[in-house]
Write a structure and sequence with these properties.
Blueprint (H helix, E strand, L loop, with lengths): L2 H8 L9 H29 L4 H21 L10 E5 L2 E5 L3
Length: 98
C-alpha cells in the first residue's frame, strides 16, 4: 500500500466534529497524545524490558493515522520522495518511494 492509498483509506474512518478548526484541533491533540504513548512504550522497552516492538509499532501507526487525517483536512498530499534510513537503539525504520 502506498502512502497516498493509506491517506485515502483513513478518510473513511474520521468523524466530522462540525468544523475544520475543531477537527484540526482534535487531531492535533490526538497526535500529541499518541507521541506521549509512543515515548512511554519506547522507554519501557529500552529501560524496563516491559514493552514490545508490537506496542511501539501500534503507537506509531496511530500517529500516522492522525497525521494522515490532519493532512486531509488541509488538502495536503503525504508523499515520500526519497529513501530514508533511521536506526534507533535496535529499531530500524526504512521508508522508500513506491
Amino acid at each position: 500500500m502506498t502512502l497516498s492509498e493509506y491517506q485515502q483509506l483513513t478518510g473513511r474512518t474520521n468523524a466530522d466534529l462540525g468544523s475544520a478548526a475543531i477537527n484540526a484541533a482534535h487531531l492535533t491533540l490526538g497526535i500529541i497524545g499518541e507521541w506521549h504513548e509512543a515515548h512511554s512504550e519506547v522507554r519501557m522497552y529500552e529501560f524496563r524490558g516491559s514493552s514490545s516492538v508490537e506496542k511501539v509499532t501500534d503507537e506509531f501507526a496511530d500517529i500516522m493515522w492522525y497525521t494522515s487525517e490532519l493532512a486531509n483536512i488541509f488538502n495536503l498530499q503525504l508523499v515520500v520522495d526519497k529513501k530514508i534510513q533511521m536506526t534507533y537503539s535496535g529499531f530500524a525504520f526504512t521508508v522508500s518511494a513506491a
